[in-house]
Amino acid sequence: MKLELFKTILLLFLVALSVTLTLNIWSYQGNYEYAEEDQAIDAKLNGTKQTKRNVIKPSQILFHEGNETFGYKNKVKETEFYSNLREWSLYNFRMMDEGEEIPTDTAESWVEIVFPTAIPTSVINELFPTDDSLLYDSEFKRIYMILDGTLQQGQVIFASGDPTKMNLRASVQNIAQIQEFLDGTQQTEEFTEYVNVTSLEQSTSVYIPNEPEIVGRKYRYTAINPDTSTIQSIFFTNPSSIVSSPNPEGGQVYSDSQREVTVRGYYMEYTNFLTSENQNEQINTVPNTIEHLLNTSLDYINTHDGWLIDEGIQFYLSELNRLTNSIEYRMVHQNYPVFSYEGLATMELTIQNMTVYQYRRPLMRLTQSYDREPTDLMTGKEVLQAITTGQTNVSENEIQDIQVGYRIQQQPGGQIFDLIPTWFVKTYRGWQGIYSITQQGGE
Amino acid sequence: MKWGQVKTIFIFCFLILDIYLLHHVMTQQNSYEFLEEVTTEENLRNNLNGLSDLPEEPKEAPMLHAKRKEFTEDEIEELDNLSGQKSLVIDNHMIVGKLDKPLTINVEGDLSEIEPYIWNYDQYVYYDKDEESNTLILFQKLDDHIFFNQSGVLLIHLNEKGEMTHYIQTLLLKTDEQPEKETLRKPLELISLLYDGGQINPGDEITDQVLFGYHNLLPLPSGVQVLAPTWKIEINNEKVFLVNAIESHHTQRDPETFIGEMMEQIKAYLTKRQNVPIKPINDEWEQEELQEFMRELLQDIDEGDGEE
């Protein structure tokens, strides 16, 4: 009888074991699927997400006093001023009449806030506190604020700079408080004269700082390896179908026959051929408004946390092109723009039919920075002098804009990126550094 | 059939079923858990040799801030007491010495016979010999090795008989302020990156011990040098990669180019192309004696050996 009891117990044990093992196998498969989902979530660049408010920033803030123009010597102060300005509520928006002039002729002093590109007026209520719902379909490139007390109403003008686009006018609350803030900043901060560049191709005036305070910096950086599945799953739906081959111009090309990523050094370019094939069918169905460009590009970069920003490094909206449906965000260091001849300072997207057709960006992230020996930079007046007398590499009549910023350049040895203060001009070929033909004066 | 017999049959059936399930569970766990590692680490181990003895430590280290040592008057007097040599101090930081009589040394040994001739000899560690210029390279050790830094090196020049004739010495000093520690990447991860990037090929061997040390990152305007934590990885006894242990950037260095750079620098000093103060260590020397010695040194460098 004892043997029978033992056999019963053994049988029960074996049955129980088989049940546990079966359950174990099932639950393990569950775990595995879960892990795979995790991997999909990891298709990120470890940067951050951004909002319109964070990427739409002015490129210049000018203080006009009669015939003279000033600006902060150190451009970082502009961010302070602008963030202060964004706290002031605007109300009573209205469209300006066609013949109505911007009242800067009669005003004693006014502030001019210049944006790098025309921005749709529909985003004003995302940038400034206002109760008004803005249904005007227009754009603005400059904001004028008449703050000398000559006006009781409509002190703020959103000017498009384009005769076919309407200007907007609004009133600001607490004008006295603003005046106080302005007086305060003018006493405590250092200013430099801004020189008006008259003979340019453009109708709106361009100002450049005469003696800007700009200091170079050296940055350590980390590279993003395009070979990892994390990067590839950002751009490809099925990373296992990717074919990688060497790029004839150097670097690698990754392709799954519908999409392609070309990598050259720390620069990459993604192209989605699927959108261009469908282009003809849909071209009329989806109007690519500027606001749509803005939203799609932000969402797209946010999805893979593609804003590789740091304390000293930001990316700001720098160009919106309605004709090519492209949008560009430029790297900014200490509020001065950064320029690269290798495409390392911009993120550029071209959007077709609601989806991203092309995406160009750097594959590196600047991390910790170090002091750099100071450089001799020409003053604004010297730059203009050199240009008008034909001593530089650019001719006067092709210049559209002039800015002082940084040229980003990799140091020999490859461990450091150098940000070198340089004057830049914009021509139809894009941005390029100014250097004098007779002597090296661009740096 | 009795219930007892049925039970026995059941017991056998379940036993077989359980063995099968157990086997299944085991293989499943192996295949899933090590899926990632099989593709990277195992693949690497299958294709490269010499991966068995990689160092695990340190796991974190700071950047190193160092300055080149400038010799004080007192120290120059100390240098004067070193045995049988004529020497110069260039730009207060570099000693170039010539022994009165060539010194027989045993390259295979611990080089201790050099000690009486070199100031603070114990700070240097033998690195390699460059056959081309017949020079021994010793790198300074500031807690950790300092790889290929012109300001922290001892070069021993040998004549054809393998005797020491000249030496060049520089020293680095840690500055007072050192940055915070940062997390380092393991040598295996970095070897994997080199392998993926095509710098190391299948079948290659990691020769020599993978060493931890520091390599130049950048000079600051204040004269301070920033050095990055670095793993020295040698492949097939020929290529040496210095891989930044924080950011994984790599450079390739070899003794021959390094010595070439050093020699160019000394020539620039001695021919006054780069105008820096040059002082004899023995202050009784006349100007003419110094000029003569500098000419001699230049000639020695140009001839490529120390024979007179």
TrEMBL record, chain A:
UniProt xrefs under Gene3D superfamilies:
YycH protein, domain 2 (3.30.310.160)
An example of a Pfam family matching this protein is YycH
InterPro entries referenced in this protein's UniProt entry, alphabetically: YycH (IPR009996), YycH/YycI_2 (IPR042274)
**Where is each Regulatory protein YycH domain found?**
5-440
Q: What is the lineage of its organism?
A: Bacteria, Bacillati, Bacillota, Bacilli, Bacillales
User: What is the protein named?
Assistant: Regulatory protein YycH of two-component signal transduction system YycFG
UniProtKB/TrEMBL annotation, chain B:
Swiss-Prot/TrEMBL keywords: Membrane, Transmembrane, Transmembrane helix
Q: Transmembrane region positions?
A: 9-26
Ribosomal protein as a keyword of this entry, yes or no, is no
Residues forming the Regulatory protein YycH-like domain are 35-246
**Coiled coil ranges:** none
Q: Which domain of life is it from?
A: Bacteria
Give the GO cellular component terms, alphabetically.
membrane
What's this protein's name?
A: Regulatory protein YycI of two-component signal transduction system YycFG
